[in-house]
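Case 417 in the screening queue. Each case pairs one protein sequence with one candidate compound; here the compound is flavin-adenine dinucleotide. For every case the pipeline is the same: read the inputs, emit a complex structure as tokens, and attach any notable structural observations.

Predict complex for case 417.
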Amino acid sequence: MKKYSVFSLARNALDYHENWTEAWRSPEPKPEYDVIIVGGGGHGLATAYYLAKEHGITNVAVIEKGWLGGGNVARNTTIVRSNYQLEGNAFFYEKGMDLWRDLSQDLNYNVMFSPRGVINLAHNDAQVDAFQRRGNTMRLNGIDAEWMTVDQIKKKAPLLNTENMRYPVYGGLCQPKGGTARHDAVAWGYARAADDRGVDMIQNCEVTGMRIENGKILGVETTKGFIGAKKVGVAVAGHSSQVFQMAGMRLPIETHLLQAMVSEPVKPALDTVITSGAAHCYISQSDKGELVFGGDIDFYNSYAQRGNYPIIEHVVTAMCELFPAFSRLRLMRTWGGVMDMSMDGTPIIDKTPIDSLYINAGWCYGGFKATPASGWCFAHTIAQDQPHDLSSEMRLNRFETGHTLDEKGVGSTPNMH
Ligand SMILES: Cc1cc2nc3c(=O)[nH]c(=O)nc-3n(C[C@H](O)[C@H](O)[C@H](O)COP(=O)(O)OP(=O)(O)OC[C@H]3O[C@@H](n4cnc5c(N)ncnc54)[C@H](O)[C@@H]3O)c2cc1C
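Case 417 output:
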């Protein structure tokens, strides 16, 4: 692989950038692999990369039904954070933050990680109590957290409306080292670095069935024929229920739609991430200048990668209430993704009852930030045939034993997580 650097940029400028090599190969599938990863989103690609890098397993294929990075990994609002209270989540997501910090150097690909701070606005006394308790727990766990007064928030985000709104702002919990990253660059960076270590990227190849004999998986049926594998890891996000149905498994997951949108680009106006659970809106500004924002899911089950107008109207209304000045901007694009909502809001990274078949699913609203930690732990689970310590509370059998990890405390209501 040619290293990306200022020198390679200058060298390629000499021939008008016409001779860059492809970022990854497009090979035909081999008859058999040591490991097949189903799903070329962020989690599948990160898993393939860490299998090769951390475990020396390079005879690996990533099988993607569309194109790499065509799913949620490149449809999200790019927020990266680890502001969790429960230990089963906190240390996992904080491992992710450690990986995010060095990811561009590790992958030799600029993922544009921007630790610009993430502020959760509190709009009533109960939220102030809950957020401060979470902030204190984060600090006890060694995770950065700061309580911000309204004046401090106003200083950080001068255009934010804190008083003349239905739910005035009482303060906010900030994770200063949280922020954003460039979503599709994350997929491309992992794909390129995994390819460099020998992983095959098989695009436009849908997994249509699983060959299982005597309780063990032998490979997958695909639109390019049968491909054998000693182990199969599935990381297909919103399509988890469909794919695991091929193995005869019914998952504690519902698929819902989540939309996001961007305004036309403007000069720098917001240099942090603002989220408001009460107003149902989260917003940041991309490096291109677009305001990137989203809100709730569409509240009905669907596999369609597009949503409906009422939610767009709801999110835009909330955004305009938080930032009245932005009401003068034009909306440039909206889109949707299919979300794998688990029953307790926590993901599943685990073995399955089928020998050598592994599951990575249930990412709800927050799987992008988890991409590096998820790949790290899933690669370990596949390579060692046992869960990683950091994801040990994210096991499938917690729904059987009742040991759910319900950060929000809203119970088994997937639409609420
Ligand atoms: C609008 C929106 C906003 C979001 N905002 C945030 C945010 O700000 N922060 C955050 O942390 N998270 C956010 N998320 C969630 C996050 O994007 C997802 O949780 C995460 O990307 C899911 O993991 P993934 O990247 O592997 O998924 P995907 O990119 O969806 O990858 C799964 C892949 O599997 C492939 N696939 C499916 N079925 C098959 C099959 N049968 N055969 C082969 N391949 C198959 C799909 O084509 C897809 O490419 C958001 C999501 C959306 C939709």
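Case 417 observations:
- The longest strand covers residues 331-342.
- The mean pLDDT is 96.
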